[in-house]
Structure formats: structure tokens, C-alpha cells
Design a protein that fits this description.
Elements: H1 2-26, H2 32-44, H3 50-87, H4 95-116, H5 127-132, H6 137-162, H7 167-202
Helix pairs in contact: 1-2, 1-3, 2-3, 2-6, 2-7, 3-4, 3-6, 4-6
């Protein structure tokens, strides 16, 4: 993957960076932790402009967030509630849980979109609840852009500062991404267990 990412950045420059970040936002196995540090390193060599590298990464990430936003919008709250009532028993989910989740997102959605753009592993998926809750597209794009700009800047600067050792960014962030992902799964499972126990207690 490193050779392919390197070849794309060297061959297509800013367009290559934007395209790779778009793909990263749509299919998470392509790590931004590798793309942007490499782009920053390339800027340090004088082959690209650093500010333009950051802009390209931000634009690509923002464009890649839109498909998941529209998937969530297409799914919609009503369909999700129907699915929860019909098939959510084994997960301990109900339409009431969906309502509570959407209420939470409507209250904290802007902050959630911004901060989740800085969290590897879930930065892609935050677009789905934003779409389901029908968050205003302008607000979604604004807070996604802020988070993506900060994330792209940090990664690009790390690659710029580390020089030939830019690959260390991905090396050390990748385990952290896995830990975050596993932690979220554990939290979700514990929440399901708690919900199931509460429902069992409520039964006569």
C-alpha cells in the first residue's frame, strides 16, 4: 500500500492527495495516517506546497464524507426505527432507543461531527447518524471541514517535521486506532448487556 500511495502522490500531486483522502473517507482501510504524513514529507522536499497539501487533504476528506451522509439520510429515522422494532430484539434495541440516540445527536451533533473527524476508526462513520438525523448539510459540511482541516494539518505537519521518518506516524497511530475501535465495540456490547438486563427486570 505504501508504494501505491507514494506513486499516487508523486504522479498526481494535489489531485492524488485529494483522491486518496476521498477513498480513505469512503473505505477506511486506506489510512489517512499514511497519506497525509507522506504528503507533508513531499512538501518538505519542496515538491509540493504545504498549505495546498492541507487543502487537498481536507477537500478529499470532505467529499468522501458526503456519500455516508446521504446513505444515512436515505436510510432515515423511520426506517431505522422500523428495523429496530422488527429485528432489534436480539440486539436489545428498540425504536425508543433510536429516538434517544437521535435526540442526543440533535443536541450534540455539531460537536460530535467535529471531534469524531479527529478520531481514527470512527471519523468516517459519524456521517451516517448525521444523515439519519437530517443534520443541516451546511452545518455538516462546516464542522466536518473544521475537523478534517485540523486532522489533515496535524498529520501533514508530522510528516513535514519527521522527514524520511514520516512513516512512523502511521506506525504509532495504527495501534491506537485499533485500540479505539476495540474499545468502542466493548462499550457497545456492555451497553447491550445492560439494556437486556434492564428489560428482563422490567418483565413481570
Amino acid at each position: 500500500m505504501l508504494e501505491w500511495v507514494t506513486s499516487t502522490v508523486n504522479s498526481f500531486g494535489y489531485l492524488g492527495i485529494a483522491s486518496l483522502m476521498l477513498l480513505e473517507a469512503v473505505i477506511t482501510p486506506i489510512p489517512s495516517e499514511l497519506i497525509m504524513p507522506l504528503a507533508g514529507f513531499t512538501a518538505a522536499q519542496g515538491k509540493l506546497d504545504f498549505a495546498s497539501v492541507v487543502v487537498a487533504g481536507t477537500v478529499g476528506s470532505l467529499l468522501g464524507a458526503l456519500p455516508w451522509y446521504y446513505i444515512g439520510k436515505r436510510l432515515g429515522k423511520h426506517r431505522l426505527k422500523t428495523f429496530a422494532d422488527q429485528h432489534g430484539k436480539w440486539l436489545g434495541l428498540s425504536s425508543a432507543d433510536v429516538d434517544k440516540s437521535m435526540q442526543w445527536f440533535n443536541q450534540y451533533g455539531r460537536k460530535a461531527v467535529f471531534f469524531c473527524r479527529l478520531v481514527p476508526g470512527i471519523r468516517t462513520w459519524i456521517s451516517v447518524p448525521a444523515g439519519i438525523s437530517r443534520m443541516h448539510l451546511g452545518s455538516f459540511l462546516f464542522y466536518s471541514a473544521l475537523g478534517s482541516l485540523l486532522w489533515s494539518s496535524l498529520l501533514a505537519y508530522a510528516g513535514y517535521a519527521l522527514g524520511n521518518n514520516y512513516f512512523l506516524v502511521e506506525k504509532y497511530l495504527a495501534p491506537g486506532s485499533k485500540i479505539i475501535g476495540i474499545g468502542l465495540i466493548v462499550i457497545f456490547v456492555l451497553w447491550l448487556v445492560k439494556r437486556r438486563r434492564q428489560r428482563l427486570r422490567q418483565k413481570p
